[in-house]
Amino acid sequence: MFSSTASSFDNAIRTANDNIAKQPICYRGWIVSTQVVHGQLWIRWQHPQDTFPRYGRPVTNNGLSATVSHVKFLIDLAMTLEPES
Fold first, then answer.
1. Nearest Cα to Cα of residue 83 among 49, 51, 56, 57
2. Could you tell me which of 53, 58, 59 has the C-alpha nearest to residue 33?
3. Which of 15, 17, 78, 69 shows the shortest CA–CA distance to 46?
4. Where are the beta strands (DSSP E) in the chain?
5. Which pLDDT tens digit goes with each residue over 36-82?
6. Which end of the chain is least crowded, N or C, by CB within 10 Å?
7. What SS3 state is found at 44?
8. Angle at 53 between CA 51 and CA 59, to 5 degrees
9. CB-CB contact of 80 with 72 (8 Å)
10. How far, rounded to the nearest angstrom, does the alpha carbon of residue 12 sit from its chain's CA centroid?
């Protein structure tokens, strides 16, 4: 369905895991970035029509991979629930 986009997303996250990426990436049109808040790594994401990353969550003890999977799930869910234009 979106394997090439998901693959590039996963590759970018692997890069972020090694050296926290300052460059935002795109997943299904959404902008995904990382930010350190009070010493904790957060993943933030932005709807294509927003001007700032409205959504975010900290990377949990389950690790970066689990947090990224959850963020991808939330973006996919938002796209499913979003009304067609």
1. 49
2. 53
3. 78
4. 25-27, 30-37, 40-46, 55-58
5. 999 999 999 999 999 998 999 999 899 989 999 999 999 999 999 98
6. C
7. strand
8. 170
9. no
10. 10
